[in-house]
């Protein structure tokens, strides 16, 4: 079946633009509107009218709430939500920002099936409690932290980080630095524990000098990597807890004329689009934010139908994707 994503790719526009055109929303250039409609006709795209007809009789609106600096993450989040909504016959409302007014505004929308919360707000107890007070089903993405009666979807963060670190150890690295995410984010705590697990499982010790926390952004990854790589005995490998920070490591290495992977190996986390755009391409942990968010919409649909899953924790698979940023350590 042709999807809205297929139409977007054919027309050469974003999936959000296609959604606006198909919903008859204003503010789209006529040339762009024609490209979208031509692509939809060429691909024989059909709107799910039977699902849409249910809107007058039951809730059909899904809210997506996030405030994240990573463009790649928020893109994947919205793509998964839109794909899930298309399959269920729902409409999507997006709220970027988490002020109390914004939270209340999205919670009071008519016809709301439920709300999906992206990271890092998925770990916010005050935010979740405020939304729960409205009596709305919630699904939290990329967190293993249980809060209230909400459902949450994530990879096994600790096991995934252990796999990333073990990959570097298997290559022969022992002097490995980590650039972790903020300590107030539960996923960052689990990823650091996985890093520690990989060392303790082999009876090894890591160097405390190379265990800093960044902001899950390119700039902090670059700044911390520069400190690591100008130390007296610099690490031969760095595990960065997301791809944005790992890309910052590559930039720092380039600035300091340190070759990756000949002189330094770098591993990221997420397998976001930036992982294959940078050079060298990143070895990373693949977790599909898109698939997790799509699953979140399906969970809300099940809850709406009274088919509440027995468990509130839902684990999504992860894999280590090996690319060009890792190699054995340089010979001394």
UniProtKB/TrEMBL annotation:
The species this protein was found in: Algimonas ampicilliniresistens
Name assigned to this protein: LacI family transcriptional regulator
Pfam families tied to this protein: LacI (PF00356), Peripla_BP_3 (PF13377)
Annotated SMART domains: HTH_LACI
Keywords assigned by UniProt, alphabetized: DNA-binding, Transcription, Transcription regulation
Keyword Ligase: no
Domain HTH lacI-type: 2-56
CDD domains: HTH_LacI (cd01392), PBP1_SalR (cd01545)
Keyword Transcription applies: yes
Region Disordered: start-end pairs: 308-332
């Amino acid at each position: 079946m042709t999807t809205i994503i297929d139409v977007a790719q054919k027309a050469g526009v974003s999936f959000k633009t296609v959604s606006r055109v198909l919903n008859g929303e204003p503010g789209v250039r006529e040339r762009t509107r024609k490209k979208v409609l031509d692509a939809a006709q060429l691909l024989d795209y059909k709107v799910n009218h039977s699902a849409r007809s249910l809107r007058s009789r039951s809730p059909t609106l899904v809210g997506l709430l996030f405030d994240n600096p990573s463009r790649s993450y928020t893109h994947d989040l919205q793509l998964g939500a839109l794909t899930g909504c298309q399959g269920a016959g729902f409409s999507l409302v997006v709220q970027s920002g988490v002020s109390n007014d914004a939270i209340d505004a999205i919670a009071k929308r008519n016809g709301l099936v439920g709300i999906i919360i992206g990271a890092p707000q998925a770990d916010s107890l005050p935010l979740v409690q405020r939304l729960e007070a409205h009596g709305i089903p919630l699904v939290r993405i990329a967190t293993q932290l249980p809060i209230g009666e909400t459902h949450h979807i994530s990879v096994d963060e600790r096991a995934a980080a252990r796999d990333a670190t073990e990959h570097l150890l298997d290559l022969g690295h022992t002097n490995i630095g980590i650039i972790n995410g903020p300590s107030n984010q539960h996923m960052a705590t689990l990823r650091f524990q996985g890093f520690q697990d990989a060392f303790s499982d082999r009876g090894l010790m890591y160097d405390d000098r190379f265990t800093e926390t960044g902001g899950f952004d390119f700039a902090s990854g670059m700044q911390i990597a520069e400190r690591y790589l100008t130390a007296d005995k610099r690490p031969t490998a760095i595990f960065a807890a997301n791809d944005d920070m790992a890309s910052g490591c590559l930039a720092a290495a380039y600035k300091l004329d340190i070759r990756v992977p000949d002189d330094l190996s770098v591993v990221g986390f997420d397998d976001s689009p930036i992982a294959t755009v940078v050079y060298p391409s990143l070895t990373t942990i693949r977790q599909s934010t898109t698939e997790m968010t799509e699953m979140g919409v399906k969970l809300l649909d099940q809850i709406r139908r009274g088919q509440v899953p027995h468990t509130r924790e839902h684990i999504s698979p992860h894999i280590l994707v090996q690319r060009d940023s890792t190699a054995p350590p340089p010979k001394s």
